[in-house]
Amino acid sequence: MDSIKNVFKTKSLQELQKTLGLKNPMAVPALSKIVVNMGVKDALNDKKNIEKANAILTQITGQRPKVTIAKKAISGFKLRQGDQIGLMVTLRGKKMYDFFTKLVAIILPRFRDFHGVKKESFDGHGNYTLGLVESTVFPEIDPGKVDRIQGLEISIVTTARSNKEGYALLKALGMPFAKGNDHG
Predict the structure, then answer these.
(1) Is 26 buried (19+), middle (13-18) or exposed (0-12) by CB count in 10 A?
(2) Which of 82, 73, 164 is CA-nearest to residue 124?
(3) Model pLDDT for residues 151-179, shown as the tens digit of each residue
(4) Largest alpha-carbon pair distance within the chain?
(5) Is 128 in contact with 156 (CB distance < 8 Å)?
(6) Which of 16, 47, 160, 181 suits 5 as a labelling partner, its CA being 20 to 30 A distant?
(7) Rounded CA gap, 59 and 12, in Å?
(8) Domain 4-172: what homologous superfamily?
(9) Bridge partners of 157?
């Protein structure tokens, strides 16, 4: 199978340049990085939960996650500044393209009643964020070994300057958007 990066550089780049009406091929948006973020439930009650989530995220991304800590104290959640509350991984280069391919070709189609991802999840600068309710949809995770369902958030950061450019880029890369009126 041809890598998504090669397909993008050979075919999609020219099409995207025409679609967006850009004269300079260097102005065509591209993937910059993918950040996979996981807030760990009950991380404060049991430190083993962070370790279990760490193992899951390592299996999913093929990279060791960074532990995220609370920036400020919130008494309602019994949270102190500096507490370990989540994990994150930043993927770039080949791992980023491999993860994106796996997300589009394997993970998203596995959802029951999947009709495409929402077009509204852009941030205004061409970056796209997608939340998954559970990590067991990834083929690397054995659902029998997971004792607690853990969600995660995938942020696809692009060099696009607008939602329209970001949408065109992700569409060209094969992101299955929900049917309906195109983003404009």
Answers:
(1) exposed
(2) 164
(3) 889 999 999 998 998 898 888 888 888 87
(4) 56
(5) yes
(6) 181
(7) 30
(8) Ribosomal protein L5 (3.30.1440.10)
(9) 33
Per this entry, what is the length of the chain? 184
Crossing angle of the two packed helices 163-172 and 13-20, in degrees rounded to 10: 150
Instruction: Tell me the C-alpha distance between 164 and 167, whole Å.
Output: 5
Reported as a pLDDT band with limits 50, 70 and 90, residue 65 is: very high
Strand partners, 38: 87
Query: What tokens does 23 get?
Result: 């004269």
Average pLDDT, rounded, for the chain: 83
Burial of 99 (0-12, 13-18, 19+ CB in 10 A): buried
CA 109 to chain centre: 15
* 77 DSSP assignment: G
Tokens of 58: 């390592």
Over residues 13-34, the mean pLDDT reads: 85
pTM tops 0.85, yes or no: no
Residue ranges of domains in the chain:
4-172
Transcribe 42-88 into DSSP letters. TTTT-THHHHHHHHHHHHHHSSPPEEEE-SS-BGGGTB-TT-EEEEE
63 in Cβ contact with 87 (< 8 Å):
no
